[in-house]
């Protein structure tokens, strides 16, 4: 028999877990983790250079320096699996009034995700930057691990409901805690990797950078998962203590 307080806590924890899973899923698939605001193009020579940069960016081959330059200079946004730049709908980059811009995106393939990072972006002879390489790979694997932990927890929770047992809630809560730590670590790895990239690739003049909404979604998922974990652990432990007291009372 499950106490009403425990049942309410478990229901709230399930809602928080579902909301966090949605946040993590949307965040993984979004390119809006980090964005750059570039100055408008006002001269034909600059426009010609940007056209060439756009073609190199969209051709599918990944070169970190080319991709970074395009993101810096073309109002780019970057995510865990996508990178996007803004391009004009016509060929006149510098026409007044400002041309209407559209966003063009290119996805990272798995091989590109695992490509080593170099101390000088684009220069393979400069040596591998181990810190940036593993930060990049961790920011790829950690959110997937968080999502898998939540899905596995949901499966265990369904089985516990079928069996009418609260005992697995303790283990499910621990899984949610790990998922929350993975979500938080993803944000930390992404921000650390971006900061290191800016140190080796200086931003052009008048280019501003800001965090995107998808990063905040991942950041919000971490406390939601931790709150769900706390509720599940409390419900499991409190129910176990009450059950032990009832058993002792009946024996006595």
Short key terms for the protein model shown above:
about 250 residues, alpha+beta, Butyryl-CoA Dehydrogenase, subunit A, domain 3, about 10% strand, disordered C terminus
Please, could you describe this protein's structure?
This protein is of the alpha+beta class and 252 residues long. The protein has one domain: Butyryl-CoA Dehydrogenase, subunit A, domain 3 (Up-down Bundle). Helix content is 64%, strand content 10%. It is elongated and about 70 Å long.
Distance between the termini: 20 Å
CATH topology, by name, is Butyryl-CoA Dehydrogenase, subunit A, domain 3
Question: What order do the strands of the largest sheet run in, or round the barrel if closed?
Answer: 4-3-2-1-5
Report the uncertain regions: 240-252
User: What overall geometry do the principal axes of the alpha carbons give?
Assistant: elongated
Give the averaged pLDDT, no decimals.
Answer: 82
Element string (H = helix, E = strand): HEHHEEEHHHEH
Characterize the biggest β-sheet: 5 strands, antiparallel
In angstroms, what is the radius of gyration?
A: 24 Å
As a percent range, the share of helical residues equals 55-70%
Helix and strand content put the structural class at alpha+beta
User: How large a portion of the residues is in β-strands, by DSSP E?
Assistant: 5-15%
Oligomer: single chain
Question: Helical region count?
Answer: 7
The first-level CATH class name: Mainly Alpha
Gross CATH architecture: Up-down Bundle
Total of domains:
1
Main location: membrane
GO cellular component, one term: membrane
Keywords: Membrane, Transmembrane, Transmembrane helix
Membrane topology: Multi-pass membrane protein
């Amino acid at each position: 028999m499950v106490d009403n307080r425990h049942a309410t806590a478990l229901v709230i924890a399930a809602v928080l877990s579902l909301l966090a899973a949605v946040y993590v899923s949307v965040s993984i698939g979004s390119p809006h983790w980090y964005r750059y605001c570039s100055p408008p193009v006002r001269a034909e020579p600059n426009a010609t250079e940007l056209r060439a940069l756009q073609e190199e960016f969209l051709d599918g081959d990944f070169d970190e320096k080319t991709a970074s330059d395009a993101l810096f200079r073309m109002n780019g946004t970057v995510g865990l699996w996508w990178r996007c730049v803004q391009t004009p709908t016509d060929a006149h980059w510098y026409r007044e009034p400002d041309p209407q811009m559209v966003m063009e995106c290119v996805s990272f393939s798995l091989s590109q995700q695992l490509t080593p990072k170099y101390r000088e972006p684009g220069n393979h002879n400069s040596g591998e930057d181990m810190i940036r390489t593993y930060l990049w790979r961790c920011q790829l694997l950690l959110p997937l691990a968080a999502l898998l932990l939540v899905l596995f927890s949901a499966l265990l929770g369904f089985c516990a409901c079928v069996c009418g047992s609260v005992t697995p809630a303790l283990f499910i809560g621990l899984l949610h805690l790990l998922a929350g730590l993975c979500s938080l670590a993803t944000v930390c790895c992404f921000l650390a990797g971006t900061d290191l990239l800016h140190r080796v690739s200086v931003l052009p003049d008048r280019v501003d950078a800001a965090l995107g909404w998808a990063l905040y979604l991942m950041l919000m998922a971490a406390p939601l998962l931790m709150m769900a974990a706390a509720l599940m652990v409390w419900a499991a432990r409190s129910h176990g203590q009450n059950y032990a007291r009832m058993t002792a009372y009946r024996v006595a």
